[in-house]
Write a structure and sequence with these properties.
The chain is 0% helix and 37% strand. It is built from no helices and 58 strands.
């Protein structure tokens, strides 16, 4: 008996699925197997079925005839439910109850096959024992390799028609694993599909309903445990496994998750796996404190977080040619580098060597040897050699990095090649009035108005000298314009010493035309403040280098001035003012309204957080996190006002809706009151605050909300420089004291 694909009178033996070679090969030959197994008693020769093939293991007297009818359609597939048999099928093998198999050719010239309306119909008759039987059916190719297979039980009853339904399962001979999204952004948790393509022995893809005769087992080799498969057993083409990625750093260790596969009878050489390698971010840390307002906060860090910071380990280190106290800056994915696109880190030293390093590996990309000053009578720098003290700054729009050397010359280099930037003088632009001064702080870039600023002080107060600010146009570099703290004709003094140089109004980013003023904290002079002199003050200066506002909160001629850079921020908790925060050598922390500086510090916001001293440990730059609403202050000494309970270490302050500040937490780490050895400014990224304690050589990571310690390590050499945190890496520079006067750049990754 037989039946058509569209009608049946009894359950049909059918295979499910479709086989195609290559993508989109719908027009290739395909087969639909519709098989009907019918049993009946041998009661004469009235049956129209062909003679049965005897099975040597089953006596004929106890058998009934079973027939398999196979329809092989040709031409374009019809829109109907597919059934599985490979296009390469050349024969069918049937064994009953483990007996000898019967193999019958399925070709147009086979005597048991005839042309039908829908294709080639082949009929195979076998003797099946009456009773409970197991039918083992295998589709074979021209080389007798198994393409699909099943084994099903059936009860053959004498004297009636018998039919059984079965599904031939594809025999997997090759496996290809494909990840359609193998490189999602690193640091962002996601789930991606895993496509498993199973091929038969002739290279046809097994797809459609049904199962695999030999199921596939997936493997996930991930050395860092960042990925997990939703399922490892793939039993059918319809399976849809996925790969979950938890967002943790993976490529920082040069690793990738390898998704492999295996199946019984499939050699490893016939398996093609897939790699899952999230694309690392290529963000910038473009200037000291991340931005020109000196927030010290990287809002884009997604790799190095509280979840991963405990796994930090030394990735590489680079020994500089001299002492170093500039925070490294990083430009992500810089083009035209000889070694290919790379994240590039820029750092200088006091021998005026300026380095461009591969931020991931520490490999030297290019180096510039600039000029330094030798001042033997000043021991502020090892050996009296003054070089690059302030951090460089990058400008994405022009692909430039700017740096000032020990003689005050400002250079602009192409970030990728190190060549002098087009339109920039090869010998640099002078940012000092003469060689009696030095640029201690970072360069400050006003990108919107194409201006760059440098603040300067003296060599050990050796007179004569003048402290102040230099301004140069980046679009048409010519001679610098100057602001002098003590006035154009004033005497010595008024140095600007802060590591962050000057700070740009934080509102500049949203409204550069209205907020282009800069802010500086100035040093002492022997002359009291006047209308034209602004020592020991917070000074607000416009682009024309005219003073907009100034305030000297605690003038003294005893060198109890500011050795700091103000932090400018707009709190996000109801305080409507833009605040300027700075710490003086007298141990006091001041907070001003940036738009009312002349009124003096806010009345409730002056705190005695340290001990008054000219010894240089009460300097630095706070950091602010809009995520926590707290600002963080490095503190080199215990408060002389013991009732405050404030000690040395790292302090965290909250700002309320009335703009009043209050100590939120403190971590007392590092030394107390070490001469000329302050702790480093803090940095915040990935909901972690980083802090280096100066002469104790320790680096810490704290929870920014609670102050709980998350990680620490000890390095070689004093640590005066703010940490840089970007693209899943922490960079720390040691000054060089205790290490032969040579600074070292350390890079850490999870």
């Amino acid at each position: 008996m037989g039946s058509s694909p569209s009608a049946r009178v009894a359950p049909r033996l059918r295979t499910r699925g479709r086989c195609m070679r290559g993508a989109g090969a719908w027009g290739l030959p395909w087969l639909v197997l519709i098989a009907l197994v019918v049993g009946c008693a041998h009661r004469g020769s009235s049956s129209a079925l062909p003679p049965a093939a005897s099975s040597t293991s089953h006596p004929a007297a106890k058998s009934a005839r079973a027939t398999v009818v196979i329809l092989v359609p040709r031409g374009t597939p019809h829109l109907r439910r597919p059934a599985y048999v490979s296009s390469a099928t050349a024969a069918l093998s049937i064994a009953i109850n483990g007996g000898a198999p019967l193999a019958v050719a399925l070709t147009p010239t086979s005597p048991n096959c005839v042309a039908a309306t829908l294709g080639l119909q082949c009929t195979i008759a076998v003797d099946a024992p009456v009773g409970q039987d197991t039918f083992d059916v295998t589709a074979l190719d021209q080389a007798s390799r198994a393409l699909s297979h099943t084994a099903v039980p059936a009860t053959i009853v004498a004297g009636q028609s018998n039919a059984l339904a079965l599904t031939l399962d594809g025999v997997v001979a090759q496996i290809v694993v494909v990840l359609p999204s193998p490189s999602p952004p690193e640091g962002v948790a996601t789930t991606v599909p895993v496509l498993v393509k199973a091929l038969d022995a002739d290279g046809y893809a097994i797809v459609g309903p049904g199962s695999y005769a030999n199921s596939i087992v997936l493997t996930d080799t991930d050395p860092q445990g960042t990925t997990a498969l939703s399922a490892t057993n793939v039993v059918a083409p319809s399976a849809a496994p996925t790969l979950a990625y938890n967002g943790m750093p993976l490529t920082t260790a040069g690793a990738a998750a390898s998704i492999g596969a295996a199946a019984a009878g499939v050699p490893a050489s016939a398996v093609t796996g897939a790699l899952f390698a999230p694309a690392p971010p290529h963000d910038d840390w473009p200037t000291f404190g991340y931005d020109s307002a000196r927030h010290g906060y990287n809002p884009k860090e997604i790799l190095l977080t509280q979840a991963s910071v405990a796994q930090l380990h030394l990735s590489w280190q680079f020994v500089l040619s001299g002492a170093a106290d500039d925070q490294p800056v990083v430009a992500g994915n810089v083009q035209n580098v000889a070694a290919g696109p790379a994240d590039v880190l820029f750092v200088g030293d006091e021998r005026s060597a300026f380095f461009a390093l591969n931020a991931a590996t520490g490999a030297l990309l290019w180096k510039k040897q600039l000029n330094s000053q030798s001042v033997p009578t000043c021991s502020d720098m090892p050996g009296g050699i003054f070089g690059i003290s302030g951090s460089a700054v990058i400008e994405r729009a022009t692909n430039r990095v700017y740096v000032a050397d020990g003689t005050g010359q400002l250079y602009a280099f192409d970030m990728g090649t190190g060549t002098v930037a087009a339109g920039w003088p090869a010998g640099g632009v002078a940012m000092l009035p003469d060689q009696n001064e030095h640029i201690y702080g970072a360069l400050t870039l006003d990108q919107a108005d194409h201006r760059i600023y440098a603040a300067f002080g003296s060599h050990c107060d050796i007179s004569p000298w003048r402290g102040g600010i230099a301004e140069v146009s980046t679009s048409s570099p010519g001679g610098a314009a100057f602001f002098y703290t003590m006035g154009a004709t004033g005497g010595s003094g008024g140095g600007i010493w802060g590591a962050g140089g000057v700070a740009l109004d934080p509102r500049n980013a949203a409204n550069p035309s209205a907020y282009s003023d800069i802010y500086a904290l100035t040093g002492n002079a022997g002359t009291p403040p006047s209308a034209t002199a602004f020592p020991e003050s917070l000074v607000r200066v416009n682009a024309a280098l005219s003073v907009v506002a100034a305030n000297a909160p605690n003038y003294s001629s005893a060198d109890l001035d500011f050795g700091a850079t103000p932090l400018l921020f707009s709190p996000a908790n109801g305080c409507t003012r833009t605040l300027a925060v700075g710490k003086a050598k007298n141990g006091q922390l001041f907070v001003w309204d940036a738009d009312a500086i002349g009124s003096g510090p806010l009345p409730n916001d002056t705190l005695q957080i340290g001990t008054s001293s000219i010894s240089g440990y009460n300097v630095g730059v706070p950091a602010y996190s809009p995520q926590t609403g707290l600002f963080y202050v490095e503190n080199g000494s215990d408060s002389s006002l013991t009732t405050t309970g404030i000690l040395h270490g790292l302090l965290a302050f909250a700002v309320d809706s009335q703009c009043n500040i209050a100590l939120q937490w403190q971590r007392t780490v590092g030394p107390n009151k070490v001469y000329d050895s302050p702790p480093a400014p803090p940095s915040v990224a990935g909901n972690v605050v980083y802090y280096a304690d100066g002469p104790n050589n320790d680096v810490f990571a704290f929870n920014p909300q609670s102050g709980a310690q998350l990680w620490t390590t000890k390095l070689g050499g004093y640590l005066f420089t703010a940490p840089t945190v970007v693209n899943g890496r922490l960079y720390v520079v040691s000054f060089g004291i205790g290490t032969g006067g040579q600074g070292t750049l350390y890079a850490f990754a999870p």
